[in-house]
From TrEMBL:
Transmembrane segments: none annotated. InterPro entries: CAT-like_dom_sf, Plant_acyltransferase. It comes from the Eukaryota. Belongs to the plant acyltransferase family. Pfam families: Transferase. Signal peptide: none annotated. This is Uncharacterized protein.
Amino acid sequence: MNETCSSVPVPRLHLEVEPVPTLHLEVEPVPTLHLEVEQLANIEKADNFVRTLSLMSMAYNNATLSLENKEVIFIKPSKPTPTTILSLSTIDNAPENYFFTESLHVYRSPNHISQNTITPKLEPAKVIKEALSKALFYYYPLAGKLVRHADGKLRIKCTSEGVPFLEATCNRSLSSLDYLDANDIEIVKHFGINLPLQDESGNRYPLVFKVTKFICGGFILAVGVYHCVCDGTGVSQFLRAVAELASGKTEPSVKPVWERERLMGTITTNPLQNPMDSAHFAVSPFIPTTDFSHECSKVHSESITRVKMSLMKESGNKKGFTTFEILSAYIWRARARALKLSYDGETVMTTVVGVRPHLLDPLPNGYYGNTIVDAHVLITVRELIERPLVEVVELIRESIKGAIKNDYIRHSMDAMETPKAVKYNWESGATTMVTDWRHLGLLKKVDFGWNEPVNTMPVPSDEYASMGLCSILAPSNLDSSMSGAVRVYSCLPSAAMPNFKEEMNALNA
C-alpha cells in the first residue's frame, strides 16, 4: 500500500543470471577474479542506489507537514443562471440542520508506482474547477448565498457570485500519511476548509471547495456544505455530476430538482414530544471542557458477524439485526461508560433516518434537499448499562421502524414547523447521534480522472455539537483486510477517550 521511492524495482537479477562456469574459474582464475570484483562492484552500486532511494523516501515521509495555500477564487456557473430567491423545506430549516459539515475525499496518484519522482501532467485543481463551473449551471443555487429572511426562515439568494475555491499544495506524499487511514485524526484537520464561511453582510456560502495536491500527484478534495441546503445523499449526487462533467459528459446523468415545497410541515398545537427537551439529562465529570480528542476506530467484519450471531441467538430473532443497529447500541453504551454519565440521569440515542423511499408522495429523481428525520430512544443511563445489549438494539430498531412511517414523518415536519424553544443539550454528553456514511455513494462514481477515491471521511470539529456525533464509515479501498468492516468516527473529551477506545477495542478481541 505504501507508495515510496523504495518501491522502484532495481534490476539486480542481471548481476546474477550469468554465473561464471566452474571450469573457467579453475582454468582462468585471474579473469574470473576480475569478473567477481566487477560483480561485487555492480552489486554495491545497486545497493547504494536502493539505499539512496530509501533515504529519499524517508526524507519525504518524515518531512514536517507544510501546506502552501493560494488566494481564494470564486467559481461561477459556466453559463448565465436565474437571479431569484428560493425557499427551503421544513426539514432543511430545522435548527439541527443549520451547521457546516465537511468531508474529505482522498485520490491516489495515477503514477503511484513511483509517485515521489514522477509529477503527473494532470492538474486536479484545474480539472475540478472547470467541471465545478459546468455543474453550477445546473446546481446554480449552490453558487448563491444562504440568507435568513425576516420570518426567521433560511432562503437561498441565487446571485451566481460563485463557490469559494481554495487550492493548496503539500510537501508530503499521501502514502506517508496512510491516505488518512491512520488513527492520527489531528492530521486530518489540516486539509479542511479553514476559510471564512460568510461575506461582509453575514450571508453564508452554501458550498466551499478546497483541493490539496501532494508531491506524489495525488490530492485531497475537501467539500464543505451547509446541511440545511442538502443532506449526504444530495452532496453525493452533486459530486457525481461534477465528476461526470470532468470526464467529458455534456450534462449530468441526473438533473437536479429543487421543489423544496414538497416537504413542508404545518404549525400544530400538539407537536411530537422531543426527548431533547429532557430536563433530567445525565451529567459527566469530564464536562465542561475545551479539550477534545477524535478517534476513528476500526471494527473488523469477523467481529461484526460474531456479535450479530450472538444477539440473534439471544433474541430468537431469525432475521437478525443490521450492522447499524448493533453498532449504534454498542457505541451508545461505550460512550456512556467512557463519560461516566450519572446512572440515574437520562440519555438519548438519536439515529438519522433517510425517509425518501417511504414517502407516500414520492420525490422526483434529482431532488437533493434533506430527506431525513431523527429517531429517538430515551432511557436512564442505568438501563443502558445494565440491560442486555440485545434489548438496547431492539429499542433502536423499533425507533427506526417507527420513524419511516408516514404519520411519523408528517408529524416530525409539523413539529419542526411549530415555533418552540427546544434546547438541544449536546453539552452534557448525554446525547449520542449516529449517522451512516456507508451508503451515500461517496466512494463510488466520483471519478475526476484519478479513479474513484480511496478514502473519505468527515473533518474533525471541536465544537460541542460535534461531541455527541458518531459516524459509521466504509473502510479505505486500499486495505483489503478491512473488507466487510467499518470505521467508527467519534469525538469525546480527551479525558474520556482512552476508556472509549478500550470499549471499542473490545469488539475486536
